[in-house]
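User: Hello, can you help with two protein structures?

Assistant: Certainly.
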Amino acid sequence: MLLQMLKSKIHRAIVTDANVDYEGSIAIDPAILKQANIAEFEQVHIYNITNGERLITYAIIGNKGDICINGAAARKVNIGDVIIIAAYALYDETEVNWFGSKPKIVYCDCEVDHFSSRVCEKGTKCCIKYHDKEEKKCL
């Protein structure tokens, strides 16, 4: 049996642009994509914390600092909205290690609330965490 499980998550990213005239996708800062282990053209789910909207699209490599929703999905966000970007993968149940296989998580806007302990010295806004084990790294 295959289980669909969270593979990667970019938590509390802030939308920097919304371009309705582009053909679709979400453009994401290449450093964040790499750290989150999300491939270009991989399907991602977007959960808008600000307004409750949910949508599915695919990731593309953007410019440094980009979190830009493109195409029709751009009508579901506003610049400044806080979102979660999630990627899922199928795993055979025999592959799943219930206590060791955890998703790769990138926390954005580390200065907010309970993420204050992960503020990066370089002034960037994203930190990487492997579920239970933090790797403090500035992007």
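That covers the first. Now for the second protein you mentioned:
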Amino acid sequence: MEMVRNSIVVLVAGITLFVAGCSSTPKVADLTGSLSNSLIQAGLKDVSVSQDRDKGVVTLGGHVGIDTDKVQAESIARSVAPGQVIANQIAILPAGLETAAKDITELPRRDNPTAPRPQTEP
């Protein structure tokens, strides 16, 4: 009887330690500063960096003028943050064409082109 009781106690303690060990994933190092510096040194000053250290995700934002700059920014991020997921959300805005794009709220609706667009809150 004593042996069964001790076995149950050891089993419960083992399960508790296993669950506690699995639920506490270590955070990755903060790389936003070093990655931002590397991007600035590469001439990519309009690229922003954010990091979710719990999930191991580095997000690149902002804008660049050409596609090769976007690819270069992602390559730099992969070298600075190996093993982390890189979410490349950089927009490509060719120089001189930023004002050529129309505000989407000025476009007619497809379902009813004559209907006014709803006003959005700023």
